[in-house]
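Ligand: KG4. Inputs:
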Amino acid sequence: MSITILGIESSCDDTSSSVIRDGVLLSNVIASQSVHEAYGGVVPELASRAHQQNIIPVVSEAIKRAGIDKSELDAIAFTRGPGLMGSLLVGTSFAKGLSMSLGIPMIEVNHLQAHVLAHFIKDTPEDTDQPSYPFLCLLVSGGNSQIIKVKAYNDMEVIGQTIDDAAGEAFDKCAKVMGLGYPGGPVVNRLANEGNPKAFTFSKPNIAGYDYSFSGLKTSFLYTLRDRLKEDPDFIEKNKADLCASLQVTVVDILMNKLRKAAKDLNIKEVAIAGGVSANTGLRDAFHDHAKRFGWKIHIPKFAYTTDNAAMVAITGYYKYMDKEFCPMDAAPFSRVVL
Ligand code: KG4
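Predicted complex:
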């Protein structure tokens, strides 16, 4: 018997819905919110209003593109948290309404767990390129930087995480001071491709274990700009590409150093990346390089599954459905959580 899951994601500024049948993607629709660009960051109140406008058309489109009727759905999986409370409320409330009207169960999904499980989405039934347990996953986004030991779909241990800023935040904040707009990560990545990564040196943290820190790098970047701008007011404009390349190589080095240490200590050679920053081509290149140098089997998500999307929610829902892990109607969203 086939299992068909509808996924709903609304944790931040992307409204997304997806249909997955037996682990295979049938549709994945994402409406991104451009309204935040003018503010240099996500405005929570505007995000929830936009979700409210987008959710019905996005879910309808996901069902239509999947080529199914809503009566064929077996369960609704929705992101319960972490994320912005107002945004989560829209997806959660919608999931409740739809599940009641269709008489099918609801499945709550942890957004971070979903990012990791994005690696299990099959684009075709023949797709077998999935990680095997246990593997390490570097989860890097605008709000998180974690090294996770994944022992099973429902057994994940965070062995290291940032003690201050996330990697995406470091990209975004440094981009902001260069006047590159929001979100800055993709712009830094594009400019870095034309720059010299050795042009500038920024400080790297020195902390124990597998934890990360990016606030020192941010400060060191800021001080470099401040000092150089005193000598030349056009410093940023003249050195944008080199600044981006040097920043990117530093972030990637920080991320890879700890990941390499974890892989060595735990003797795990199957390694994945997930989250918005996993779209970064410098980080992807470093993964390929480590695969060659250390014999890692690597898993790099398709670009469509790096940023927030409902396909990762639906695949998580699919695994939870198999274990009959349903949630009650009074499930309320949570804004903060650890895995
Ligand atoms: O996972 P995500 O879509 O949202 C959450 O934070 O949950 O991640 C967004 C982050 C932003 O900080 C953005 O700048 C960063 O991912 N990002 C990138 C790239 N694409 C997105 N950072 C560096 N290089 C990229 N190509």
